Amino acid sequence: MRNQVVLYKKLSPALMHRLQEQADVTFIDEPNRDGLARLRAALPHAHGVLGASIKLDADLLDLAPHLKAVSSVSVGIDNYDVEYFNRRGILLTNTPDVLTETTADTGFALILATARRVVELANLVRSGQWTSNLGPDHFGSDVHGKTLGIIGMGRIGEALAQRGHFGFGMPVIYHSHSPKPAVEARFNAGYRSLEGVLKEADFICLTLPLTAETEGLIGTEQFGLMRSQSIFINISRGKVVNEKALITALQNNQIRAAGLDVFEREPLDPDSPLLRLNNVVATPHMGSATHETREAMAQCAVENLISALAGDRPANLVNPEVWRK
Ligand code: DGY
After folding, report:
1. Rounded distance, CA 118 to CA 140, Å?
2. Which atom in ligand 1 lies closest to the alpha carbon of residue 237?
């Protein structure tokens, strides 16, 4: 019998063809909205699931008694309860590596956009308000030579450090679970406590995953440690930050600006106070959103699922304990 796959992320024709060679595929469009009922109806037949951006919780997965593998088109796995997967013996895979450089590019885009007030000043031109040479009211701050603080020195943190150190001559400081001597040697980076990074860095960039440990990590107390010139960048997950505390810190000029690609709730409410602040650059969770990278992620996810359903160990297995069993 052929494997049945429920797909809720659109694939390019080439990848769809590749998947259909190996399995019967049911495609569900808009699983967050109109597609939810169709997703629920398809799950009872599924051996494999491939998609991203929705919470696949027990309520949904209990509908899928034959499920062997879920392949997420993302590096983040916060939409999945890994303990549940382990209990049920379901393999979970993700797509690390292929998005590292692109996501770091997004981080740097936010660093430059906030420091140099790119969006605000471009809007000035667009709205016909550029009527004389810019004065100090519209000046930004330098990026080159400033201290880059990275919280979470994983792959994306390293790619950010590389850009800062080699491209912009920035001293790099970082905080992670433990010091990373190879990173320190490569980027002349200094390990600090979390508080140390918050107090010292000009740019404070979050690149860590959302876990029970990191949820709400940055709140009122942490914003209180930052300097009034600090710029806060979040390309990890919105829930790592207490958004209310961030808004208060921005409104009270406790920090200079924020570049945010992720939010507590996505899509961001158009009425969010964040969108009324000129010193906020808000982007729509576009960290990995380039043609090349999204195709590479989808390809990685397809190959992960094909391997898992064929009984081979997938390249990017999140829960190897299930494999060992
Ligand atoms: C990821 O891959 O985790 C990105 O944030 C997209 O969700």
Report:
1. 9
2. 5
Residues 20 and 73 in one domain: yes
Claim to verify: residue 190 and residue 163 sit in the same structural domain: yes
How is the beta sheet containing 69-72 ordered, strand by strand? 23-27, 3-7, 48-51, 69-72, 91-93
Task: Tokens 């809007």: give the residue.
Answer: 123
Q: What is the CATH number of the domain that holds 122?
A: 3.40.50.720
Catalytic residue list: 237, 266, 285
Structural domain range at position 107: 100-282
Residues in the chain with pLDDT < 50? none
* Most informative mutation of 99, 210, 240, 262 for ligand 1 (most atoms within 8 A of CB): 99
pLDDT digits (tens, 9 = 90+) for 103-115: 999 999 999 999 9
- pLDDT on residue 231: 98
- Reported as type and span, the H/E element at residue 115 is helix 100-115
Atom of ligand 1 nearest to the CA of 53: 7
Q: Whose Cα sits closest to atom 7 in ligand 1? A: 74
Distance in Å, CA 228 to ligand 1 centroid: 30
Q: Which residue has a Cα nearest atom 4 of ligand 1? A: 74
Atom 3 of ligand 1, nearest CA residue: 76
Ligand 1 surroundings by CB, under 6 angstroms: 74-76, 99, 287-288
Q: Are residues 130 and 175 located together in one domain of the fold?
A: yes
Same-domain pairing of 64 and 149: no
Query: Does residue 261 sit in the same domain as residue 320?
Result: no
Residues 171 and 296 in one domain: no
**What's the one-letter identity of residue 206?**
L
**CA-wise closest residue to 7 among 306, 290, 316, 310:** 306
Into how many domains does the chain fold?
A: 2
pLDDT for 301 equals 98
Give the CA dihedral 257, 161, 149, 191, nearest 10 degrees: 170
What pLDDT, on a 0 to 100 scale, did the predictor assign at position 136?
97
Task: Evaluate whether 122 touches 115 at the Cβ level (below 8 Å).
Answer: no
The whole-number pLDDT of residue 323 equals 94
Q: Do residues 201 and 122 both lie within one domain?
A: yes
